[in-house]
Amino acid sequence: MSKKVRVRFAPSPTGPLHIGGVRTALFNYLFAKKHGGDFVLRIEDTDQNRFVEGAEDYIVKALNWCGMHFDESPQLTGEHRQGGHKNFGPYRQSQRKHLYKSYADQLIENGKAYYAFDTAEELDQHRKDHEAKGKTFIYNWHNREKRRLVNSLVLTEAETKAKIDAGEDYVIRFKSPQDETLHLTDIIRGKMTIDTNVLDDKVLFKSDGMPTYHLANIVDDHLLEITHVIRGEEWLPSLALHQLLYDAFGWDAPKFAHLPLILKPTGKGKLSKRDGDKLGFPVFPLEWKDKNTDDVSKGYKEEGYFPEAVVNFLAFLGWNPGTEQEIFSLEELIEAFDLSKVNKAGARFDPDKTKWFNHHYMQEQLDLDLAKQFKGTRPELADVDINYVALVVGLIKERATFVSDFWDLSHFFFVSPQSYDEKASKKAIKEDTATVMEQVKAHVLKTNDFTVGNLQTNIKGWITKNEIGFGKVMMPLRLALVGALQGPDVFDIMFMIGKAETVKRIEALIKEI
Ligand code: GLU
Known about the structure:
Blueprint: E1 6-9, H1 19-34, E2 38-41, H2 55-65, H3 97-109, E3 113-116, H4 120-132, H5 157-165, E4 171-174, E5 181-186, E6 190-195, E7 203-206, H6 213-223, E8 228-232, H7 239-249, E9 255-259, E10 262-263, H8 273-279, E11 288-289, E12 296-297, H9 307-315, H10 330-336, E13 347-348, H11 351-364, H12 367-375, H13 386-396, H14 406-410, H15 422-428, H16 433-446, H17 452-465, H18 470-482, H19 490-497, H20 499-512
Parallel strand pairs: 1-2, 8-9, 10-13
Antiparallel strand pairs: 3-4, 4-7, 5-6, 11-12
Helix pairs in contact: 1-10, 9-11, 12-13, 15-18, 16-18, 16-20, 17-19, 18-20
The protein binds glutamic acid.
The site of glutamic acid has 7 residues, from loops.
């Protein structure tokens, strides 16, 4: 029987989650759900110096906003699950601290790792000496047994023990194999070979009792029975070490998939927060306030993006279904997603495409829901009937990308023009406009059944019959109603604001002329 698919999203809580992190979570989520598997959140907080308060909470909130929910997480341990589900928790590495030492010891015992006592100053000196000779210092097979380094490969067992007993600081280093060719496989990148001689002996454990990322990551992926590791390309250089660690423990390694980088809109270099600041788009899902600097970073949610749009555009950063279809709900993405269709090449971030998706999902929202959001944004709408607002939204949303665009597109449905656009006035007002508008007013007044259809028949019929010219009537009429030459159909506007208000606005324009 094949094992149940289990994937994890394993962020370090060092700040807000970048949009690239959300994409990694999304691909994990889609893969898990596609295969009926578990989507697990593991918090990699072994580096307490980089811990940022509120980051974990932010990560959970951001992913939930996108519609991704974990099956297991620090908040949601396995216990709540039905059917005798194994409890894999805790899900924060800081709470799993007690576990790692025995695994490091195991590697020492079977000769796959060793103690190293070199101080930071000594290592720094080695680095400098090497640099002076135009070389780079790497701690590995070529020098680890030389006397100038202080480790358990050089010292006798008794000397090593004496140092540890005396409380000297040490680290445990992985003993990378010498002269081996390592064969690695990545679902996206295929097969790779690595010469183990280029690897350095990475630190796995420190005498302060904390494991490093590499050890904790491998031990936890094993204990949590993770079947697929899907993560960013920046971790590809660690794959060799990770594979070697699995081998050293005698464990089966999960399958790996390293996702392509997300590139700047220009296509050159990795997308950064600075690109967003410069070009005016967010790189975080939710707003984030830095507690130290009070700096606020924009979030997609607060900028008016719909989660469906964010998910849809993120899915296309590095993946595509191989068809023309671009619009995918989360459910449809689960159905269509395939790791083997993820590209190797970096994915260019296109802020305009994000807006295009938002415009699309805007049209799919219920007018009443949009009206509720819109109402909250303007004091002028406080006392307006929600159904009226919803009707207005229905007339203008096709031209909007965000709810924040609504007011500019629709203010004239709620308040009469305060002024007339200069350019529009020049274009619309001719010598006889006042007279023409008096006539329009008369037609409006005599239209008793004030519907779009009747208004259209009366006014258009009169224009045609008297050969007045549409522009001569419709342009100033629009100017009177809107204050500019913009907006939806003139008859829709008249119907919406009603007879009395229409007449008032026509009179106001005549007075202005
Ligand atoms: N903690 C790592 C990060 O912050 C996780 C890398 C991995 O998924 O193995 O990205």
